Every structure is written in C-alpha cells, then in structure tokens.
C-alpha cells in the first residue's frame, strides 16, 4: 500500500514538473515564432506597397513629361514643316539621355505618318531607327487612343505591352509601357501625336528586383511578384509566365485579398499584397505586388538548441533529484505517509495548473518538512514565473523577475526570452517607424507641385520626424557654367525660415561643399565652433550633432541635406535618411525637368498670346497682302513658266567670278557632250582652244565680266570630242543685295548650223562676186556686140525696107503685065 502510494507520488511529481516544463517551453516558443511571423508579415506588406509606390512615381514622371510635350514648339514646328526637324531630332536624343527610362520617341502627323524619331538610345549610341520615318501608325492602339483625347490633360497610356518596333531596334523582348499625347498648336487644335515607350526593365522590373534582392539577403527564399489588372504575371524576366494567367489563387482571411501563387512550394510562405492606387489606376489597372517570405516554423532542431533545452534538462534533473530524495525519506519513515498524501494532493493540483500553498502542518523540521519547504519554494517560484509569463503574454515586456539565484536557469531563461521579445518589439517598432516615414515622404513627393514648396515640406517633415532642431536643404544649380549649391529650404524649431537673398555654396566650401565633392555622408558628434548657432529668448547655444547626407541618384548628386540636433541621431535614423535620400533626389530631378518643361510651355503660351494680340493688327495687312499675293502668284507663275521655258530652250551654265564652273543644265551638257561631274569645279577654258585661252583677248573677256559688264555675242566653243560649235550666248554677271558680284550665268543657243550656212553663203557670195565681175565684162562685151548687132539690124532693116519697096514695085509691074 505504502509502496503504491509512494510510486504514485513519485510518478505524479515527475508528471507535474515535466508537464509544466513542456507547457512553458511550447508557450514561449510559439509566442516567439508568432511575433517573428507578425513582423515578417508587416515587412512583406510594406515592401509590396513600397515597390508599387516607386513604380507609380516613375510612371507619374512619364505622364507629366508627356503633358509638357503637348505644347512644345519644336513638335508643332516639325509637324507643320517636316523638312526642318533637325532641332527636334537633337531634342529627342537629349531627352533619351535625360530620361533614361525611354526606349523610343515618335512624332506623327494627323495621318499617322512618322515624321521624327530618336536616332540614339539613352547611352548616346546610334540606333537604326531612321527606317521608321514615313511609316504609318494610324491603326495602332496608341495613335487611336490619342485621337480620342478631348482635353489638354489627357495622356493615353497602355498596360504592360510588347512593342515589336522596340524589340527589333534593341534586339530585346520589347516590354514596356506606351504613352501617347496629342500635339496641339497655340490655338489648341490637334495637329499630331507624340508617342513614348518606357522600358519595363527600367520603370518597374529593376525596382522589383532591387527590393527582392534586398529581402533575399536575410531570406534566400523571399520573392516579390507583380500582377496586372487581369491577374497576369508581370515579372519581365520570367518569359515563360509572361501574360499567362495563373489558376492557383491564395486567399488571406484577415486581408480578404487575392494573391497569386507561382508554384506549389510557396503555399506555406507568408504572403502579403498591396494594390496600386497611382497613375494607372485611372484606367482601372490596379496592379498588385505580392511579397512572399519564409515563415519561422516550429522544428525539432529549434527544440533541441538554445537555452530552452538547457532549462528542460535542469528541470528534469531537479525533478529526478527531488523524487529520489522523497523516495528515501518515505522509506525511512512510513509514518509520514499522510503528509506525503497531502503533499501529493498539493503537487497534483500544481500539475493541473492550480497554484496552492503548502499546509502549515507539513512545514516541520524533519525531512518531510524540508521537502515541503522546498516544494513550497518551488511552487512560489513557479507562481512568480507564471505571473511573469502572463504579463509577457499580455504584452507587458517591462515586467521584471527579481530575487533570482544565479543557478535559477529557468528564471534566467525567461528573462532572456523577455529580453529577446523586447528586442523583437524594438526592431518591429523601428521597422514601423521607417515604414511610416517612407510612406509619408512618398506621399509628400507625390502631392507637391512646386519645387520650392516641395523642398520646404520635405525638410520640415524630416526635422520633425527625427526630432532634430534645425536643417537646411541645398539643390545643385548651374551658375556661370559652374555647379553651385543653392539654399532651397531652411527649418528650425518647427518653422520654415526664409531668406531675402539667395544663398549659394561653392563645391568644397565648408562641410556642405565637401560632402558635395566627395558624395559621402558626414556625421559629426562635435560640431566646429560657430558652425551653427541657435538663438532663443534664453540665450544662444551650438548643436552637438551634425548630419550631412548627399541627395544622390544614379551616381548624380542633386542636392545636400543638412540636419543639426542637440541630441544624438541614432544609426537606424541615419539609415532612414540615407534610404529616403535617393527617392528625394529622383523626385527633385523629375521636378526640375518638369519645371523646365513648364517654363518652356509658359514661354510658348506667352508667345502665342503675343501672336494673338498681333493677329488683329496684321489681319488688315493680310487682307491687303492677299491681293498682292495673288498678283505675285500670277507673276510667279509667269516667271516659273518663263524660267521653265528658258531652262527648256537655252543651254545654261553658271560660273563663279573666277570662271570656275558651278552648275549646268541638261541642254548645255547635251550640247557639249559632257556629264555634270565632268565639268563641275573646272575652268571655262575647258571649252576654248589653247591658243585663245592664253590670249590677251580671253583675259580681257573675263576682266570685263568681273567688272560687271555683260557680254552678248556669237562665240566659238569646243565639245568634249573637240568638235567646234557656235553659240549665240549672253554672259550675265549677278550681284547680291549688297551689290557684290557673286556669280556669272551664261544663256546660249546652238547656232552652229546658221554659222556654217553663213560661212558657206559668204564663200558663195565671194564666188558670185567673181562671177559678177566675169559677167560684167561679158555683159560689156555683149552690150558692145549688141550695139553692133543693132547697127547691123538697122542696116538690114533699111535693106529689108528697100527690098520690100522693090518687091512691091515688082508686084505692081507683074499686075500691070497681066
């Protein structure tokens, strides 16, 4: 009987102590795991939101840039006169370097024909893009989307797409986001479309990858996924999953949010998502970022390592020792079984979690009494540790556990666990502090419009958030071809300070200028005397702490942030300032570019208003000029017809004042049997013989032309085959507006046939003259002979008359005879 009682007592004590040990071990272990997983969940949610905020910020800058382009005078000039787009091409190539996220810039007219394109990429390397000039984009989504714009603020944009043109130019996947904005003239009329294509790798994928790389430093299994409005995966480097909808969905009950899972091995990971509310949300493109991190799990290895295992072993050892001592005592004195039964009841209650006190009748000086006292101390100690654990479970990590002996491993383990939880809570508080700061500064960067106001709001927030006393914000500005630091904002004691005169600091001047030259953060705990003094009604004092952080993005310093404080700036606060410095620098750079664009836009508006004011005064002149224009147009047509007729009729050649050939028309080249390249740059003596070219007559011929005297005559010239041709030509010297002779034009017609006929006629004339002389002498001789014949005829006539008289007389005589 006593042996069974002893055995049950022994087993009960072992069970109670082991149960309490296991209960405490599992309780605190799960609390630690739960706290770590909660912190990871917050970190994942903040990471998702931060990635989307950075992407929205980048896309917002793209939208603002495209709004500014709508009224750019270079674009309107290029649309009106496509031949004069060299300045626009230079501007587009410069924009590719300023805005390195772009891959392609296009300008189209209202028919959709491309009239300008960038010829270099963001690295200033030539692109084979000129082949796009003249191609038609009318049926593209972005061109039709821009045509539907009704206001000047409308900017058409796409979701993540693949542009085949960009893919061909860059030999890449061509993934990105397209923007299109209508180009309007000063009257607000749409005259063309401006198209930009932002590289996905630079606008979003790099932001996602950088954040994922940062997470994987602590968690190699961590992953950040991007999803579109239609649940398509937008991780650009994952070409197999690009634009393929994922059927696997994961629901978070506490968030009630839809999260996509890329593979089955991610189902046991902590997943937190955020939804974009930025620029693309206007088109209901609510992008999602999902951050997956590995949870802290309860494993056997965790149970078998650390101080918890040590506590377990110590308690087990103590349990075994107490059971052994109790067993020996009971064996020595069976009369005290009832005390043992009572003590057993107490221990059974303790094993069930009921903390009771040891009855006074057990507290004697014998061995049972000593055991009872030890059990009582143990129960009191467990009661104290239980209360300590309950306070920790309630979140009271400031609770203390006193009166511990150096050998109390359980108590020290509980205190170490509390300290670890305090550190986790402190890290969680710091992380929340950083997250809230990043969220607030992102909101400030998105909502401010003026760079002066933006600088003041940024500085005011940082000073208040760090609980510092004073600060300044300098921005880099070009002054006389030199980079200087201009004071844009100053803040002290919760108020922004304003300076009447601009304050400039040269590179290398003071600590601020030194930080600009070196590009490194400066943190001083002892500020040089009189560097910064703060005056109040209670007197003057010098802050002890100075933090100077360069605002740097893409290895380019955009400004300097200077913070002075009476109290120390903690390391995590310095890391926070460095983290937001790059975002501030990128935003300031975008705002500077936007303000430059707005300034150019305002100038164009002012010029447009001036032109409108002059329009009424010039309208009357235009009406008068219409008549003059009609007359000039008629005369121009007559002149064009005349010039066309001259060019068709005459052989024309142009010389400079030294006689060097500048140009010749087809009639002249055909007449002289030359090609244009054969005679350009050669002297007029090409068309004359050597003897005449070296004669004084030829030299005088050109001297008179140089003096401005025209020369019209018939000239003998020689063709390529050295055949002689005769030209009826006019050499006409031409003068410019200042009266300076600058070239000579020759108008000629081919009179070779006429000249040859004239020479032949001259020869015939000379022969005829000879014939005339011979005929004259013959005529004189004939005339002399004629006179002689006339004399003979007169004599014959007289003889004939006498013969007739004789005949009549004969007839009369015959008649009489009959």
Give a short summary of the structure.
With 818 residues, this protein is α+β, with helices and mostly antiparallel strands. The chain has 19 helices and 25 strands.
Verbal overview:
Keywords: ATP-binding, Coiled coil, Kinase, Membrane, Nucleotide-binding, Phosphoprotein, Transferase, Transmembrane, Transmembrane helix, Two-component regulatory system. The chain crosses the membrane at residues 9-28, 308-330. Its main location: membrane. The protein has 818 residues and is an alpha+beta fold. The protein folds into 5 domains: 34-58 and 204-293, Beta-Lactamase (2-Layer Sandwich); 60-199, 2-Layer Sandwich (Beta-Lactamase); 300-425, no CATH class; 452-593, 2-Layer Sandwich (Beta-Lactamase), CATH 3.30.450; 650-750, PAS domain (Beta-Lactamase, 2-Layer Sandwich), CATH 3.30.450. Helix content is 52%, strand content 19%. The protein has 19 helices and 25 strands. Strands 12, 13, 14, 15, 16, 19 and 20 form a 7-stranded antiparallel beta sheet that branches. Strands 1, 2, 3, 4, 5 and 6 form a 6-stranded antiparallel beta sheet that branches. β8 (249-252) and β9 (257-260) form a beta hairpin. The longest helix has 79 residues, at 571-649. Mean pLDDT is 76; it is low at 236-265 and 535-539.
**CATH 4th-level superfamily of the largest domain:** GAF domain
**Radius of gyration from the alpha-carbon trace, in angstroms:** 55 Å
Query: Mind summarizing the main beta sheet?
Result: 7 strands, antiparallel
Topology-level CATH name of the largest domain = Beta-Lactamase
The first-level CATH class name of the largest domain:
Alpha Beta
Distance between the termini: 235 Å
Query: What is the general shape?
Result: rod-shaped
Give the overall pLDDT as a whole number: 76
Number of strands: 25
**Helix proportion of residues, in percent?**
40-55%
Percent strand equals 15-25%
Number of helices: 19
Decide which structural class fits the backbone: alpha+beta
What is the number of independent domains?
5
Low-pLDDT stretches are 236-265, 535-539
CATH architecture of the largest domain: 2-Layer Sandwich
